[in-house]
Write a structure and sequence with these properties.
With 290 residues, the chain is mainly alpha-helical. The protein has one domain: Farnesyl Diphosphate Synthase. The chain is built from 12 helices and 2 strands, in the order H-H-H-H-E-E-H-H-H-H-H-H-H-H. Helix 2 packs across helix 6 and helix 7 packs antiparallel against helix 9. About 2% of the residues have low confidence.
Length: 290
């Protein structure tokens, strides 16, 4: 699959630096009372990962024809919401993880109550930041996108299904539901929020939405494959995985098919040069399955 010479890793690194500046500006300082809560919030957000969802948000705005700055507040908002989901997913009553990105999880570092409240505060801040989008008429639609992705029909619903699958072997239908809602819905929100900030029409929004859902499911399959490799090395705990439904080869082929379909969706509304960052990010996700 030819994805051109555009360097997706460089793109992610540059967009990460820019969104980190925005996140630093919108998060309360550690010295602002209540200090323990604000330290926990910042600990949850920094240092982050590759800031993939914010990068997708900004890349969508660029694909529509706006500068990436138009999507900086939506990009920061989606990362704040993503950070809240990770804090809550790690809690003892959920996934009970003690380490994330090589560091103690928030509830280990700050206590369970502070972690719960830090997640709540990050979620609230995400909507505040999304509402700051400086595009006339776009902020309401952007906030609604984030709310739909965050709720019972989105990430929370996916997490409920994920927890249920820990005790009952999931069907293929159940696994598709988990991947779609726990992961892909936030990908879709990130991309649609960026597109809305850029004034996308219905045709471009539809194309980007189709791309986003397929990309998000492929990303989660890739994560499951990476987790399986870690499990084999004895470095992670057992968790819900698509390998409960498909073997490794089938899972890889499914991810490859989804990436091809995502790129085809983009091609229906965008020229290759306009969509180059989105195409490059799809290539990076594809390589995670290898």
């Amino acid at each position: 699959m030819l994805l051109g010479m555009f360097d997706g890793n460089d793109y992610l690194a540059e967009r990460s630096r820019r969104v980190n500046k925005t996140l630093d500006a919108v998060l309360p300082p550690e010295t602002e009372p209540p200090e323990a809560l604000h330290r926990a919030m910042r600990y949850a957000v920094f240092p982050g990962g590759k800031r993939l969802r914010p990068a997708l948000c900004m890349a969508a705005a660029e694909a529509v024809g706006a500068p990436s700055e138009a999507a900086l507040f939506p990009a920061a908002a989606v990362e704040l919401l993503h950070s809240y989901t990770l804090v809550h997913d790690d809690l003892p009553c959920m996934d009970n993880d003690t380490e994330r990105r090589g560091l103690p999880t928030v509830h280990v570092a700050f206590g369970e109550a502070n972690a719960l409240l830090a997640g709540d505060a990050l979620q609230a801040l995400a909507f505040d930041v999304a509402a700051r989008t400086p595009v006339p008429g776009a902020a309401v639609a952007i906030v609604r996108e984030l709310a739909m992705a965050a709720g019972s029909l989105g990430v929370v619903g996916g997490q409920v299904a994920d927890l249920a699958a820990l005790s009952v072997r999931p069907s293929e239908t159940a696994m598709d539901f988990i991947h779609r809602h726990k992961t892909a819905d936030l990908f879709s929100a990130a991309i649609r929020m960026g597109a809305l900030a850029a004034g996308a029409d219905d045709t471009k929004l539809r194309s980007l939405s189709e791309y986003a859902i397929r990309l998000g499911v492929a990303f989660q399959i890739a994560d499951d494959l990476l987790d399986a490799a870690s499990d084999a090395a004895g470095t992670t705990r057992a968790a819900t995985s698509c390998l409960q439904v498909w073997d490794v080869g089938t899972a890889r082929r499914k991810a490859e098919t989804l990436i091809r379909e995502a790129l085809a969706s983009l091609a229906r509304a965008f020229s290759p040069d306009r969509a180059e960052p989105l195409r490059a990010i799809a290539g990076l996700i594809l390589r995670r399955t290898e």
